[in-house]
Structure formats: C-alpha cells, structure tokens
Amino acid sequence: MPELPDLEIIREVLAPRLTGKTITAVEVVRPLVVRDLTGQGFAETLTGQIFAGVRRRGKVLLFPLQSGLTLAVNCKLAGRLQHGLPRERRLSKTHVVLTLSDGHELRYSDRRTMGQIYLATGLEAIPGWSEMGPEPFDLTLEDFRERLRPYRGEIKGVLTRERAVVGIGNAYADEICFAARVHPYRKRSSLTEEETARLYEAMQSVLREAIATLRERVGTQIHREERDFLAVHGKGGEPCPVCGGPVAEIKARGRVTNFCRTCQPGGLIRT
Ligand SMILES: [Zn+2]
Predict the structure, then answer these.
(1) Which of 181, 197, 190 has its CA nearest to residue 154?
(2) What is the rounded average pLDDT of the residues 71-97?
(3) What pLDDT is recorded for position 268?
(4) Which runs of consecutive H residues, i.e. helices, occur in the chain?
(5) 3 counts as catalytic
C-alpha cells in the first residue's frame, strides 16, 4: 500500500512531467476503479483536459486540471501509477491509460481492483475527504497529543487512522513505533507523555528519511514499491538493526505487524 513517503515521491516525479500537458486520449481498460463524479462521462470529460499540477492529501494523489476539475487517485492496497512511453510494457492489471500531449502515458494498474480514480468538480465530493485529519508535517507535538487523545486503542492502529493523522499505513506505523521504542500493541491510553513525544519525533524523522531514501532509489520508476530499506517492517525473523535479536512478526486482521520484543518492550497481552 503506498503511504505518505511513496506518494510524495510520485508527486515529485509527476509534477514537472504532467503540468501543462494535455490529455489527448483516455483508455478505460477496466472500468471498475473509475468514479465519474461530474455526471458527464469519465473518458469524454477527461479528454482534452490540461494538467495544472500534482498534489497529495493523505493517501490521495490529486491532479488538478486547468478547467477546475480534479482527477484524484486513491491507490488503496495495490494501486500503482506508471509514467512512460507507449512502447514500455504495461504492468499487469492496467485499468486506465491516459495519453499525454508529449507522447508519454500515465497508467493506473491495480491487481486487487480496490483503488479508485475520481473525476470530480469539488474535492468534498470524494468519499472520506472531509473526515481526513491533518498532515504529519503540519502537526506540532501539542497538536499530535490532541489528535491522539480521543483514541484509547493500540497505538499502531491509532497511527493508521486517517481521522487522527493522514498518510501513515501498516508499514510506516511499524517503523514509527520501532524508532520510538514503543510496542505497537500498547494502548494509546497507557502511553506516557514522554513516549508520545518519542512517537511524534519518530513520525517526523521516519517519514522524512524515507522520502529522502525513496528519492534516491525510485528515481522515475514510480510504479516500484521500495520497502527493503525499512528497519523492521517486512523483516520478520531477521536481526533487529539495533539489538540483533530476531524481529517479531504477528499476523492479525489481515495485517502483518513487525517489531522487536527487546527494543519495544511491553504490550505482551493481546486480546
Ligand atoms: Zn531490537
């Protein structure tokens, strides 16, 4: 699942490549991910539109168009964007292909068909838009405490709640908990002031460092999901980079959680 760092890189790569370009053709290969909120027809309305920029809000990539409409992409679990020339091989399960006036294509593929591509007149028409919490980089420590306060459950789950703070998913929540030395299953209501401060600092540093690393590794290959540089997520059984002990792995509710029992003590009882 693309999270804030992945999407920031996609935004950085696409902004100079799309801005000012005209969409000359729209091919909807598989219509299930397409949501036309204009009522005017997705392909018909999008053809001829000019990109005005690329933005990100939470886990949604926004492509404002010069007409005032917005194309919004929520990749959900497995959606990917690909930018390249027509001769470059399409990813499997490519759903939508936009041809650009410079000869490139912007493609959306999704092997789970769970993502959504909206064409909207106003952003508030996008489901869940108004419920989104603040961006991590906009939060002060005091804001962060306030955002977490209403939630009493496991801290990892709280960090992934879009109403609390946006952009953090399963992978980066594990990384933030590890960097903060907080067990992911600790109840939010049990955290000390100091532990919450550590989580705040870890959220800032983990996300910023990941953006810097991804910028180097992904380049223009924005369809690639780079995760092997992470400290614990996806590293079950491998040595913890801090203490050398094995990274623990727990699968629950379809999600994998990785952490270090030595570096992140507590939270042993889980019901
Ligand atoms: Zn450790």
Answers:
(1) 190
(2) 96
(3) 59
(4) 4-18, 42-46, 141-148, 155-159, 170-180, 193-218
(5) yes
Q: Span 142-157, mean pLDDT?
A: 97
Residue 271 predicted with pLDDT over 60: no
Average of pLDDT values for 99-122?
96
Which burial class, exposed, middle or buried, applies to 8 when counting CB atoms under 10 A from its CB (0-12, 13-18, 19+)? Answer: buried
251 catalytic residue (yes or no)? no
Q: How far is the CA of 176 from the centre of ligand 1 (A)?
A: 14
- The closest alpha carbon to 113, from 80, 153, 147, 71, belongs to 80
Tell me the CA–centroid distance for residue 213 and ligand 1, in Å.
Answer: 22
Q: If you measure from the C-alpha of residue 51 to the centroid of ligand 1, how many angstroms do you get, rounded to a whole number?
A: 46
State yes or no: is 255 an active-site residue.
yes
Nearest to 176 by CA among 193, 162, 194, 155: 155
Q: Is 88 a catalytic residue?
A: no
Share of the chain above pLDDT 90, in %: 94
Catalytic site residue from 35, 56, 59, 107: 59
Per the residue annotation, which of 17, 215, 224, 255 is the catalytic one?
Answer: 255
Comparing CA positions, the residue from 77, 58, 78, 75 lying closest to residue 167 is 58
Per DSSP, the three-state class of 212 is helix
Does the pLDDT at position 269 exceed 90?
no
